[in-house]
Complex III subunit 9
Amino acid sequence: MDSATRRRSQGGLFEGLYRVIMRRNSVYVTFVIAGAFLGERAVDYGVHRIWEYNNVGKRYEDIPVLGQRQSEE
């Protein structure tokens, strides 16, 4: 068998994705919604980490005596 015939019989990557994900509308919609949710979570986590890294020492939590009164003796 040559490679073109073998490729047609096995299917390609896109044909496999079509068979698994996009053949039925309910599975496709679920895949899109789950992908959007997981993508949003990943981007939110990444941006939050970058923001914390760039603002170390400038955040409210990093100031040790903020809001504390000096004791009077």
Summary: The chain has three helices and no strands. The mean pLDDT is 82.
